[in-house]
Amino acid sequence: MPEHKMQSGDGPPTISLQLVPKMLSPLTSVWSPKAFVVSFKLETNPEILVKKAKAALDKYHHKLVIGNLLHSRKFEVVLVSPDNEETIQLSERDRDTGVEIEKYLVAEVVRRHEMFRTEVSITTKPRK
Q1: Dihedrals phi, psi of 84, to nearest 5 degrees
Q2: Could you tell me which of 12, 23, 35, 85 has the fewest CB atoms within 10 Å of its CB?
Q3: CB 77 within 8 A of CB 67
């Protein structure tokens, strides 16, 4: 921590960033392997979005990747799970009236989580 404030006459500051570790691996393998874990994938190239989302599912063994492209992130997302892909896209009317993609995205994630909870409760009911 510097002792004094930066002087504007010294020129622009140099900022050095460091990568942070990926936390999906310990989350899905150690901390909570049975949880409904969702990750996000933002890309600029549509050719690799789904491929990278599927690679993340294979690597981290979680339930869902919400993928989007930088240029269309506010009106289109793709939900990639181990067994399917589904696109959610705002209609022109939704866009014109200010509806945000999260309205549909959150509803779909909640629906999938409820299905997951139902499946888990059926398969893990204690025997009497």
Answers
A1: -165, 175
A2: 12
A3: yes
Report pLDDT for 85: 97
Beta sheet of 84-89, edge-to-edge order: 38-43, 64-69, 76-81, 84-89
Q: Is the pLDDT of residue 127 over 60?
A: no
Which CATH code fits 23-123?
3.40.50.10300
- Where in the chain are the domains? 23-123
Q: How far apart are CA 53 and CA 82, in angstroms?
A: 10
Max intra-chain CA distance, the chain: 76
| Residues near 99 by beta carbon (within 8 Å), at least 6 away in sequence | 90
Residue that the structure tokens 């200010």 belong to: 98
